[in-house]
Specification:
By secondary structure, the chain is mostly helical. The protein is built from 17 helices and 4 strands.
Length: 366
């Protein structure tokens, strides 16, 4: 039993040590049968900026394609990414005051079927737009912002690319912390105090690196471009006054469906660290974060669940008299708090401050 546990843990390390929750080398192309999807997703920014009607391209020209030719997980992830971008462009092309109320069958039905196969909702998620939306400009080069680009984009120019790439690099910085969390989980089972401490140090270092990486947002994302142009395309159709009943998926349901838009609350890495450290959020915040797990790939949810059902790390440390272990745990919690505070301050800058400025200047997207 112990051997199987170690083998499973090693398999997890192989998956997470290098890239964390990022998929390895996402595809950028699909079989020719799906050319309409890729052409539309690749030209989305041009269509929106040029006020060319996406609606006519979908309702008149795009056939209802079956996902049956998508043969593996990588193809399904790319299809979900493309359909997600097209859907957000379709719904929000006319702005927040005139969103589309119905997603046409040629888009809605295959999107629903692909989503069912992946265990993801039929809306653009953080796992799509950040985790799976990257490629290397030079395949032999490093994963750094100058050598990386998005697969699909939205209006916002370099700020759009910068937003996705910085978010992705923050997730990449989380990779060693995810394996550190797994090490702690395994070490607790055999009461290896030294291994627990080493795992916690790895998580702490990872959180500090995530915070430093997140600072790049200020250099690569313009305040006005994010708030006034890009942000609308992350809006979902749950608790949205512009779509109070949700969005009707033609050919899928006779009633509108309510789904939340992409958000950093859907980051599997942060919720893994919460679960490891036994961080409890207040009722409303806790319920919201738990609901965001429905927007994560199933394997990521399983990782959070595995950490959540482990015996309490905090109680384990309190039951031992190791001051070094207690200090390692407290340092880890402090690093997580620092990262969250920095993230909230950045949200304040890009959303609240930018919103106040837009209202002052009479921006219609305020």
């Amino acid at each position: 039993m112990e051997t199987n546990s170690r083998e499973t843990l090693q398999a997890d390390f192989d998956a997470f040590e290098k890239l964390g929750f990022l998929p390895e080398e996402p595809l950028t192309d699909l079989p020719d049968y799906y050319r309409e999807w890729l052409d539309l997703a690749n030209n989305l920014t041009h269509l929106i900026n040029g006020n060319l009607k996406i609606e006519s391209l979908i309702t008149i020209q795009m056939p209802v394609l079956s996902p049956h030719l998508l043969s593996d997980h990588r193809e399904l992830r790319l299809a979900h990414l493309a359909l997600g971008f097209i859907s957000m462009g379709y719904v929000w092309q006319e702005g927040q005051h005139a969103p589309a109320q119905i997603l046409p069958k040629a888009l809605a039905l295959p999107y629903w079927l692909v989503s069912c196969r992946l265990g993801l909702p039929p809306i653009l998620t953080y796992a799509d737009s950040v985790l799976a939306n990257w490629k290397l400009r030079d395949p032999t080069g490093n994963m750094e912002i100058g050598n990386m680009d998005v697969i699909f984009s939205l209006p916002g120019g370099e700020s759009c690319r910068g937003f996705f790439m910085v978010s992705l690099l923050v997730e990449l910085a989380a990779s060693s912390g995810i394996t550190g969390a797994l090490e702690v989980m395994h070490a607790m089972k055999i009461s290896d105090l030294i291994a627990i401490q080493k795992g916690l140090v790895k998580v702490t270092q990872s959180l500090k690196k995530m915070k430093e990486t997140f600072k790049l947002m200020h250099n690569h994302v313009d305040l006005t471009a994010f708030h006034g142009t890009l942000r609308i395309f992350f809006s979902g159709w749950r608790d949205n006054p512009m779509l109070p009943r949700g969005l009707l998926y033609e050919g899928v349901s006779n009633e509108p469906i309510s789904l939340s838009g992409a958000s950093a609350a859907q980051s599997s890495a942060i919720q893994c660290f919460d679960a490891l450290l036994c961080i409890q959020h207040e009722d409303e915040a806790g319920a919201f974060l738990t609901s965001m797990r429905d927007y994560m790939p199933p394997a990521h949810r399983q990782q959070i669940d595995a950490l959540s059902v482990c015996p309490s790390l905090r109680d384990f440390i309190l039951s031992n008299s190791s001051s070094d272990l207690c200090q390692a745990y407290n340092s880890c919690v402090s690093a997580l708090v620092d990262f969250r505070k920095y993230h909230l301050n950045t949200v304040t800058k890009y959303i609240i401050v930018a919103g106040n400025r837009a209202r002052t200047m009479g921006c219609p997207l305020s």
